[in-house]
Amino acid sequence: MSDPGAEVDRHEESFATHPADDGGATDSVRQVSRMIPGLAVLVAAGLGLRGNGPAALGFLVGAAVAYTNFRWLKRTVKALADAVSQAGPARSRPSVVLRFLMRFVLIALVAYVIFTGYPLAFHGFLGGMFVPVLAIFVEAARATYSAMRPRS
Asked: Which residue from 34, 85, 96, 152 lies 20 to 30 Å from 53 (Cα-Cα)?
């Protein structure tokens, strides 16, 4: 009779040895990371061409903060997963939580400076904060099209 615990260990080992086998999620996150700056520049250029320079600059600042936040979030999630599974390098859990909270402090600080110093750019800043969402929608549409496309 086989040991059920051994089966679980083999299953967990297959995840540890093949982390790239995640159904394309890693590839999609990489694509979203690449799309964020490009989409930010495209939208900001459109705002600038319409004669709304302060909003375009605010949009670029918001997109830069959102991109930084996205990158930090990826690292924080990986660190939390490693801390829970004890798979990665030993990191203290308080430092992971502190980094998670610092993302919000950064966003609040930049938003406050723009809101008080450059109120015309504030709406652009808020729009720029949603560039990762736009990139996720574009990647979802691309992945859906790719999955539905007939193979030859």
From this structure: 34
